[in-house]
Amino acid sequence: MLRRSFISVIAGVSLAAVSMTSAFAGAKKDIVDTAVEAGSFGTLVAAVQAAGLVDTLKGDGPFTVFAPTDEAFAALPEGTVETLLKPENKDQLITILTYHVVPEKVMAGDIAGKKAQVLTVEGDRLSVDARNGVKVDGAKVVAADVEASNGVIHVIDKVLIPEG
Known about the structure:
Strand order of the largest sheet: 2-1-7-6-5-4-3
Structural class: alpha+beta
CATH class: Mainly Beta
Number of strands: 7
CATH architecture: Roll
CATH topology: FAS1 domain
Number of helices: 8
Oligomer: single chain
Number of domains: 1
CATH superfamily: FAS1 domain
Strand content: 15-25%
């Protein structure tokens, strides 16, 4: 039922990205457990739980998830996250979260130096530009290729909002 996958790639990994990626080192867990263990995705994990998408993202995949950090969620207008987490806004939350998910595993090397439109689980396309660093719909990829047992996570600095 998951409509979107998070996908992101990065050509050059900064020192900050290297240190963030090292937080994911160790045995491969699924996407949800990897995000929980990292400690910088509490809001994303809470949103996935509120949307009822935990089982989906723990499924076989493969998925590519463009994962906004807690700081990315904090940068949204005041009250946005709280509003989205309300039960009456579950459909909107699902739409936003599935816009961050691609239903295949895409590693940074697969798109390095290219520009592409990538279909998400939500049904729209993300604009990925990996020609000078990596941006996904304007969000910067700050860590790439965080492998999980059922896909890959690319960490982004903004929450992606589908148009319409």
